[in-house]
Design a protein that fits this description.
Blueprint lengths: L7 E5 L2 H4 L27 H5 L3 H9 L14 H15 L3 E5 L2 H4 L10 H17 L2 E7 L5 H7 L6 H16 L6 E5 L9 H5 L10 H26 L4 E7 L3 E3 L4 H23 L4 H9 L10 H7 L4 E5 L4 E3 L7 E3 L4 E3 L15 H15 L3 E5 L17 H19 L4 E7 L19 E3 L11 E3 L1 H11 L7
Parallel strand pairs: 1-2, 1-12, 2-3, 3-4, 4-5, 5-7, 6-8, 7-11, 11-12
Antiparallel strand pairs: 9-10, 13-14
Helix pairs in contact: 4-6, 8-10, 10-13, 14-15
The protein binds 6-O-phosphono-beta-D-galactopyranose.
The site of 6-O-phosphono-beta-D-galactopyranose has 14 residues, from loops.
Length: 483
């Protein structure tokens, strides 16, 4: 078995989790800049973990100190990007997934003229990547929308934000058309229900008690905006490809009792609803029936369904970290996953953060998504967060990470061998960075260690972990040598 010629190996980062420089060169505050350090995820009440209030936002906006807002620091990629890109090139990266921070380009989201210093920064990054032979895969919205749009409009609940986003995308397509041919619109488009503020700038106390209805209205605006961006990208950049990006939350029935299977089927359909709209260009009938029964009516303009039909994506990308099970037994033991709370699978090991490690689940996910959508796939996030240790001699021994990736790559190979068209693979966090859900750096994902702790202390120097050299070999042999 082997990976196809031209398979793209690399890694994935996001502006708000690496750049830092939160208020430099004209950048406006983003929703990520008010995320505080929260190392303990409350498994029983994730909503409380991600809850945001107008009061908390106002406090954070008044606080110019970065010390308790780790995403304001990132790992200083804004100033160290050349060194980091050279390390990625040393591993042999053919692709790097990265995001453009919307509020670096339009600080409040509503300016008519973009911030040239922001545009120039990403142009320098893309020029360096071209020199190094690393192709960009650019995410346009990765949990970092302008905070001003959240405060002024309650985020994406207001249709005006569609025009703001379309203007941001068009500006990027025109400015970077010579560097970038692969784009993603919304990171984990399905996450709006799990963390409405991070994904769409929705502030619960502004929703009048109808937060779920606000989420689906905001989602509709995002889906329309995404479809408009897809069409615009194809016009501005001939040969460009735009993908959707889904949190693949593969769920198994806890038992073979039919009620568990039915509940699991619904959970998986709920997860795929979002990519269904972006791939097929229409809302699934079953999903709309469920919303109707929950009293949720999405307000649409007459042209919206036509826009969705004309803006279908070219490929399907997704994040995959873990799987979980579903059960109708209220006493079933639950465990946290990637911003979700699932029923524990007794056959699988868990990471320190409770995420259940399931390489076979990646094969299952690839087969399922390819059979459903018949579009090329791209794995754009996969990896394991762990507490790595920097030894006195500057080495970092992470055999568990090598084992995690080796087992996942073997399952990817089986899916490709079964006929799945897989464009490429970008591991999440090829360099240690700030966790999205907890703002920890100590939850380390990288092949590269960053000497910084959760409170921002450290040299921020970079160190190659053992897995750095292993991944270098995997890429050099196009996945043949996984030992
Ligand atoms: C995904 C996000 C990434 C990344 C990843 C790991 O949901 O798209 O930005 O953060 O999760 O999760 P965490 O950082 O919470 O460990």
């Amino acid at each position: 078995m082997s990976f196809p010629e031209g398979f793209l190996w690399g890694g994935a980062i996001a502006a708000n989790q690496v750049e830092g420089a939160w208020d430099e060169d004209g950048k406006g505050m983003s929703v990520a800049d008010i995320a505080t350090y929260k190392p303990h995820v409350d498994v029983k009440d994730y909503a409380a973990h991600v809850a945001v209030s107008t009061e908390a936002i106002e406090k954070a906006m008044a606080d110019t100190d970065a010390s308790c807002y780790p995403k304001r620091r990132g790992i200083d990629f804004y100033h160290r990007y050349e060194e980091d890109l050279e390390l990625f090139a040393e591993m042999g990266f053919q692709v790097l997934r990265l995001s453009i921070a919307w509020s670096r380009i339009f600080p409040t989201g509503e300016e008519e003229t973009p911030n040239e210093a922001g545009l120039a920064f990403y142009e320098r990054v893309f020029q360096k990547m071209r020199k190094l032979g690393i192709e960009p895969l650019v995410t346009l919205s990765h949990y970092e929308m302008p905070l001003a749009l959240a405060v002024k409009y309650n985020g994406w609940t207001d249709r005006k934000v569609i025009d703001c986003f379309v203007r941001f995308c068009h500006t990027c397509f025109v400015r970077y058309k010579d560097y970038v041919r692969m784009w993603l619109t919304f990171n984990e488009v399905d996450s709006i229900i799990r963390h409405p503020f991070t994904t769409a700038g929705i502030i619960p106390d502004r929703c009048g008690g109808r937060e779920l209805a606000c989420c689906y209205q905001a989602l509709h605006h995002q889906l329309v905006a995404s479809a408009l961006a897809v069409k615009d990208c194809h016009g501005v950049i001939p040969g460009s490809q735009v993908g959707c990006m889904l949190t693949k939350l593969t769920t198994y029935p806890r038992t073979c009792q039919p009620e568990d299977v039915a509940a699991t089927q619904q959970k998986n359909l709920d997860n795929l609803f979002y990519s269904d709209v972006m791939v097929f260009g229409e809302y699934p009938r079953l999903a709309m029936r469920r919303l109707e029964k929950e009293g949720i009516a999405i307000e649409m303009e007459p042209q919206d369904l036509g826009i969705l039909r004309e803006g279908c994506v070219d490929f399907v990308s997704f994040s995959y970290y873990m799987s979980m099970t579903e059960s109708v037994d209220p006493e079933a033991e639950r465990t946290p996953g990637n911003t979700v709370l699932g029923v524990k699978n007794p056959y699988l090991p868990s990471s320190e953060w409770g995420w259940q490690i399931d390489p076979v689940g990646l094969r299952i996910s690839l087969i399922e998504l390819y059979d459903r959508y018949r579009r090329p796939l791209f794995i754009v996030e996969n990896g394991i967060g762990n507490r790595d240790v920097l030894e006195a001699d500057g080495t970092v021994h992470d055999p568990y990470r090598i084992d995690y990736f080796r087992r996942h790559f073997r399952e990817m190979e089986k899916a490709v061998d079964a006929g799945v068209e897989l464009m490429g693979y970008t591991s999440w966090g090829p360099i240690d960075l700030v966790s999205a859900s907890t703002s920890q750096i100590s939850k380390r994902y990288g092949f590269i260690y960053v000497d910084a702790d959760d409170l921002g202390n450290g040299t921020y120097d970079r160190y190659r972990k053992d897995s750095f050299y292993w991944y270098q070999k995997v890429i050099a042999t196009n996945g043949q040598d996984l030992d």
